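Suppose a colleague, Dr. K., hands you the sequence of a protein chain of 230 amino acids and asks what its three-dimensional shape might be. Before reaching for any lab equipment, you can write down a predicted structure in token form. Begin with the sequence itself:
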Amino acid sequence: MSQLATILNSSIAKKYTMALTGLFLITFLLNHLYTNLLIFAGDGGVAYNEASHNMVTSVFIRIVEVVLFAAIILHVFQALSLTRDNSKARPIKYAVSGVSDTSDWFSRNMGLTGSLILFFLVVHLYNFFLPYRITGEVGDGAALTLSQSVVVALRNPIYAGLYLISVIFLGFHLNHGFQSAFQTLGFNDKKYTPVLKLAGTGLAVLFTVGYASFPILIFSGICGGDIISI
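The predicted structure, expressed as tokens, is then:
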């Protein structure tokens, strides 16, 4: 194995990749949240549909999409690789007294929260990205606009429930992942840790409340009535 391959396959390189791809995905989630909030504009979904159409026709956004998918794949791959490495390093499982004193629930269950988020992401892409970005059709052949398709999906109790649960787990994942990413990149001084922890919690709350508003408000019928009557 070459020296470069050895470096790239090292634990440090994997953690850096996890941190950088994780932070990039957070920036995407912020932009995605802003776009999704347009569905509450009260204009029958016009602003949301226009924003979505502009993203589809933008060459820049298409390039970002490629980078985004690469980041997701790298993030998942490195997570699995680090988990495997840690398992090999400790082939014999043992109980650690007072483990809750040295790590919180969020850090101990990043694999669990990440797995559920990945599952929902696959379902979400299948329902929206694949038909809208690839085939150009939404609404399962019912000739619906994208905003109408979103309302239909989120008024389905199964999809709305999965969406809400996944959003909650996303919050859990970010609550630890945000500060962990910065600590990996060198911001591990004692004066930074409380700030990063607070910022991570704030970001987790923002995403949880923001994204949870879609299944809650649309499924309950509080919002979405101006877009489609079901």
